[in-house]
């Protein structure tokens, strides 16, 4: 099964949807755990003791106590509807009813077909989850449940587990149910953690993490009152975010398109435009307020950087590579180290992840009022194994 350290003193209660499948419950009992199995949909199965260490209860877990809960109709409910609804209880109530309020709940497992979001939120709000060493959960996003407008809140709930100290384990198995229905599951056990402050949770694959980030994009946390289209980029002009004087803009990634740069210059900003791929364009002054520099931004200084071959590199390869600099180095070279960088724009074809991480690690980004960035996840770049780290960089904002 797995390498699992346990003893007779460990007690595990699996609060989950069983659907007549006791494999997990029996396996945990076989290594010495006491297991409580819960499923309100098994209408023909009364409360009973299953073997020496497994106890079945025909109740479900919820974010509120309810004797007559009416569930949404799915494949489980359709074949066995309860006339008077299902008995549902909060975890606190279940622990109290079973006399386990003062005992250590070792493992909490949930497979409750989309209701895990509300239950997990309740577990987090109550603080009860902080004392559970391992939390095993199957996340569901069906095509109609939870409702689409509630999905961002569900994703926020998921990320709150990280804040509580749960660590992600690379043991999850995920699959698509349909084009509009994402179902996430995990069918392998996880090892016991060492250290009282460690926590465990199933991880998500690279594309699951990308979906988390995409879901976050739908939530505008700051409502800009004065948004203007500056060339091909939107810029917020609220509360003097763009000063009348001493406005300094760095624009990385031009590809011969200076619309944004020229638009910012036209309102009085001094703009520095950077692109190491424009090999036929030397450093020059473009108009009164736009200065072009044929170098790029990176997370390290490098005079001979060799980029991955894409549509931009293919048509204009540099024999000796590209000159690349960290933002700190560029500010120093241009004499802007003590000046306020008003807007920082990045459109650098997948390298923004490493650059942004460097900007966050150095702390330099904390002084920039506006950060405009185009995020890229190409089919081969960054490598799939690095996508979770890239998404973590995004959520560090």
UniProtKB/TrEMBL annotation:
Protein name: Methyltransferase domain-containing protein
Methyltransferase domain residues: 24-167, 224-395
TM regions (residue ranges): none
Taxonomic source organism: Pomacea canaliculata (Golden apple snail)
InterPro entries in the record: Methyltranfer_dom, METTL24
């Amino acid at each position: 099964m797995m390498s699992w350290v346990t003893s007779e003193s460990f007690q595990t209660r699996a609060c989950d949807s069983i659907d007549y499948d006791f494999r997990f419950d029996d396996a945990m009992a076989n290594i010495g755990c006491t297991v409580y199995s819960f499923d309100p949909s098994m209408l023909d199965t009364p409360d009973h003791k299953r073997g020496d260490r497994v106890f079945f209860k025909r109740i479900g877990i919820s974010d509120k106590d309810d004797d007559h809960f009416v569930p949404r109709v799915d494949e489980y409910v359709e074949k066995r509807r309860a006339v008077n609804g299902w008995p549902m209880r909060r975890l606190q109530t279940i622990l109290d009813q079973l006399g386990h309020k003062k005992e250590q709940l070792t493992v909490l497992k949930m497979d409750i077909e989309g209701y895990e979001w509300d239950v997990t939120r309740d577990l987090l709000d109550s603080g009860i989850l902080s004392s559970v060493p391992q939390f095993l959960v199957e996340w569901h996003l069906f095509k109609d449940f939870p409702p689409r407008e509630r999905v961002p809140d569900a994703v926020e709930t998921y990320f709150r587990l990280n804040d509580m100290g749960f660590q992600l384990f690379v043991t999850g198995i995920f699959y698509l149910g349909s084009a509009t229905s994402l179902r996430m599951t995990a069918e392998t056990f996880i090892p016991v953690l060492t250290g009282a402050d460690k926590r465990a949770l199933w991880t998500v694959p690279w594309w699951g993490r990308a979906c988390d980030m995409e879901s976050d994009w739908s939530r505008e946390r700051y409502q800009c009152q004065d948004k203007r289209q500056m060339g091909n980029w939107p810029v917020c002009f609220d509360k003097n975010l763009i000063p009348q004087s001493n406005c300094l803009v760095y624009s990385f990634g031009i590809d011969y398109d200076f619309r944004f740069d020229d638009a910012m210059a036209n309102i009085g900003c001094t703009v520095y435009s950077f692109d190491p791929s424009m090999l036929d364009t030397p450093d020059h002054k473009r108009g009164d307020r736009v200065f072009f520099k044929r170098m790029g931004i990176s997370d390290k200084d490098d005079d001979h950087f060799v980029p991955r071959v894409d549509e931009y590199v293919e048509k204009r390869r540099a024999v000796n590579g590209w000159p690349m600099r960290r933002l700190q180095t560029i500010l120093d070279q241009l004499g802007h180290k003590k000046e306020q960088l008003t807007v920082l724009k990045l459109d650098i074809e997948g390298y923004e992840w490493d650059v942004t991480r460097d900007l966050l690690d150095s702390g330099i980004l904390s002084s920039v009022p506006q950060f405009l960035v185009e995020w890229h996840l190409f089919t081969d770049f960054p490598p799939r194994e690095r996508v979770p780290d890239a998404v973590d960089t995004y959520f560090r904002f």
